[in-house]
Amino acid sequence: MTMMAAVLAALALQGVALDPPVEAEAAEVEQPTRTGPWTDMYGEPQHPGATYRVRLFVHAAQACLHFAGEEPYDAERAEFLNAMMDESCAGLKERYTAILADPMTDAPSRALVEKAWEPFRE
Description:
The protein is mainly alpha-helical. The chain has helices at about 5-15, 50-70, 75-90, 90-100, 105-115; strands spanning about 40, 45.
């Protein structure tokens, strides 16, 4: 196995997305930074020690809530909102469960994930 293949395999096992950031239609979606200081989708500073996996979860949960709360005032808008909800809401419960099951997730990250998940509780 080459060094690059080993690095890519290690990143995949850690749940690090290797795809380029997704861009929303008619708007630039800012992805969280991979390390260091970062803000959520509302511009609020968050736990700088959070893993990229946690950061992506928080952004996805916030995007899911945002698009679910938008008004589909015509068919085109409804189609766009459904596509954005499919993209941002898909797999949130599984991601939530996996992050909390990971013993490497620190307490501040767990609290952040719990806070992001709170609106989705049944």
